[in-house]
Design a protein that fits this description.
about 45% helix, globular, alpha+beta, 2 helices
């Protein structure tokens, strides 16, 4: 998945109510996911404190 796709999918998931975001270095989606989260927060869809974000090394 490209970073742009990860960003869009993360943003849309947050818009419809997802609050647990899972990522990992091996998925190579961390940058796109971070951008999607940033966009959702910037657009006042969610607060950071509403999200449960996990990652694996």
């Amino acid at each position: 998945m490209s970073p742009d796709e990860a960003e869009k999918m993360t943003y849309e998931a947050i818009k419809v109510g997802y609050r647990h975001i899972d990522t990992a270095e091996v998925y190579r989606n961390e940058k796109g996911v971070a951008e999607g989260i940033k966009k959702a927060i910037s657009n006042n869809i969610v607060k950071r404190s509403d999200l449960f974000i996990t990652t694996k090394v």
